[in-house]
Write a structure and sequence with these properties.
Layout: E1 7-12, H1 17-28, E2 31-37, H2 42-54, E3 59-63, H3 69-83, E4 88-91, H4 109-134, E5 140-145, H5 149-152, H6 158-178, E6 182-189, H7 195-200, H8 203-210, H9 221-234, E7 242-245
Parallel strand pairs: 1-2, 1-4, 2-3, 4-5, 5-6, 6-7
């Protein structure tokens, strides 16, 4: 049996992976969900909505490129029109290009701009547009899905690491700026068993990446969702924190 109604959660990038895992977990906790997706993930996003509704919760589906402020403003207008409130924002939308860090010439300006637009500007646009609704909630929280790449400087590309480092700093800045009404935290995953990784790395390459970790396996989307749920709902005194979930890689 589902828990009683808890509120409204906006989960960006919720067609697949961590985003879908979050959308379904918060639905199970009693939240109605705003599901967003980029233009190439519509079928997967529709499946996320179906799975939410199978749990007896309500959902809206909105195509949104979070790097475009006008689309984000329209997204939040639709959330306000449909639900009239917003309690949680989970910024899962993200992207990368796989470029070896030493291959400086292949890290083009276009790749830089695309990565930073989605991974850094996108969460800011979403949070800014969501603030008027969040301020009306008695338990407003934002969780940004960042990466240990933003801490260690090692990841899929230099630009990806830089974008997540900026997101980590912005999380702390926004936690100060929006306090005390809105808590802002981030989760920093290590490698996740996801479509992203499997499209770009072989099974052998993935095994090599985690072999030296104290917990030598890829995280699952649900592993990351566990941390997100805690940061969003588990403790009203936690804000401005970067929760690492990486099997001990950065220890």
């Amino acid at each position: 049996m589902n828990k009683s109604f808890q509120g409204i959660a906006l989960v960006t990038g919720s067609a697949t992976g961590v985003g879908r895992s979050c959308a379904l977990r918060f639905a199970a906790l009693g939240y109605d969900i705003a599901v967003t997706y980029p233009d190439f993930d519509k079928a997967e996003a529709q499946e996320t909505v179906r799975l939410i509704e199978d749990q007896g919760r309500k959902a809206i589906l909105v195509e949104c490129d979070v790097s475009q402020d006008s689309q984000v403003v329209e997204l939040l207008a639709k959330v306000a029109s449909r639900f009239g409130q917003l309690d949680l924002v989970i910024n899962c939308a993200g992207m990368t290009h796989f470029v070896e860090p030493a291959d400086l010439d292949s890290m083009s300006e276009e790749k830089w701009d695309e990565i930073l637009a989605v991974n850094t500007k996108g969460p800011f646009f979403v949070i800014r547009a969501a603030v008027p609704l969040l301020r009306k909630s008695d338990h407003a929280a934002v969780v940004n899905v960042s990466s240990v790449a933003g801490i260690s400087g090692f990841g899929s590309s230099l630009a990806y690491c830089a974008s997540k480092g900026a997101l980590n700093t912005m999380t702390k800045s926004l936690a100060r700026a929006l306090a005390p009404e809105i808590r802002v935290n981030a989760v920093c995953p290590g490698p996740i068993d996801s479509r992203w990784l499997r499209q770009n790395l072989s099974d052998e390459e993935m095994e090599r990446r985690v072999a030296s970790f104290p917990i030598p396996r890829l995280s699952t989307p649900d592993d990351i969702t566990d941390a997100i749920v805690y940061l969003a709902t588990g403790n009203a005194m936690v804000t401005g924190q970067l929760q690492v979930v990486d099997g001990g890689r950065t220890m």
